[in-house]
UniProtKB/TrEMBL annotation:
Domain of life the protein comes from: Bacteria
Organism: Pseudomonas vanderleydeniana
Taxonomic placement: Bacteria, Pseudomonadati, Pseudomonadota, Gammaproteobacteria, Pseudomonadales
Name used for this protein in its record: VRR-NUC domain-containing protein
Length: 292
């Protein structure tokens, strides 16, 4: 299993990523080519830091990536459907939670790093206080963004031959993957930030695990489309149904069954490897607070 992310290196990564993403937010107001070029350099800089942070994980992962995902999935125990964050979530999404996900140790490592040290960005809000509009700023933790940046860096280090693809885009109508160059690389449309914007008629699962890493990530080559949910981000039936339709073969029998079997739900940290949460009961007070 890959070793833990070094705290000092990870802190440097998050600091650099924070500066890059904050710059990206400011980029909406940037008018000059020089400003945008500077932001692009910041993104490249923090991606290089990501590579260094995950070097140990990459070395450990390299011993397994030549194995088919379906073979690796046999040893996965699935997620913890005995744990519920909210209402009947563990019953409604039981089959998705318990789905076998190859490379769960590596995925868990990345997601836990993103949970513990996410990129944080300021967001301006305007509130009415005592009848007057007052500008204020809150800090938003971008946990999913941090995880996706880490997975993308793994893919780049492996010359876009990683079996783990971060937020790849698929045409919602045809289910065709939007391939980059090489065709094992997800096509990106953002000039500064890789995952935004994306085409209007597209779907992008948080993480796709391909069966054969040397081949494009078309749905036929997808072993699992993983929806990742961090705390306070709830699974939604409509979203899961969209991914099932995306993964359904166009012809043949049992199309919906096949589509369902390719969709997984991974809640962080509940479904990550190495966490003893099976016998824990949800904190009722915390659960009620999250409903607000």
């Amino acid at each position: 299993m890959p070793g833990p992310v070094a705290p000092v290196a990870a802190s440097a990564l998050i600091a650099a990523a924070y500066r890059a993403y904050r710059g990206y937010q400011a980029g909406h107001a940037a008018n000059s080519a020089a400003d945008m070029a500077s932001l692009a350099r910041d993104i490249v800089d923090h991606q290089n830091r990501i590579k260094q942070v995950l070097r140990e994980a990459l070395e450990a992962m390299s011993r397994e990536i030549e194995i088919k995902s379906s073979t690796l999935a046999v040893v996965d125990r699935g997620g913890n459907s005995t744990v519920s964050r909210r209402g009947d979530e563990n019953l409604i999404f039981k089959e998705y939670i318990e789905r076998k996900v190859p490379f769960r140790p590596v995925i868990s490592q990345v997601c836990n790093a993103a949970l513990q040290m996410p990129i944080k960005v300021p967001r301006r809000l305007r509130k009415k206080i005592a009848g007057e509009l007052v500008d204020t700023t809150i800090e938003i933790a971008l946990k999913q963004t941090t995880a996706s940046l880490l997975f993308e860096a793994v893919d780049e280090v492996l010359d876009w031959r990683s079996p783990l693809k971060a937020e790849p885009n698929y045409n919602k109508n045809s289910s065709k993957a939007l391939l980059g160059d090489p065709p094992t690389r997800p096509k990106r449309f953002g000039k500064v930030f890789p995952f935004w914007p994306r085409p209007w008629e597209s779907l992008a699962p948080d993480l796709v695990v391909v069966e054969y890493r040397q081949e494009p990530f078309e749905t036929e080559n997808v072993f699992a489309a993983v929806e990742i949910k961090f705390p306070r981000d709830w699974a939604k039936q409509q979203q899961m149904k969209q991914y099932v339709r995306l993964m359904m073969p166009k012809t043949g029998i049992n199309r919906e069954k096949i589509g369902k079997e390719k969709v997984a739900l991974l809640r962080v940290p509940e479904d990550c490897v190495g966490l003893e949460t099976d016998n824990k009961k949800p904190n009722r007070r915390e659960d009620n607070g999250r409903r607000r």
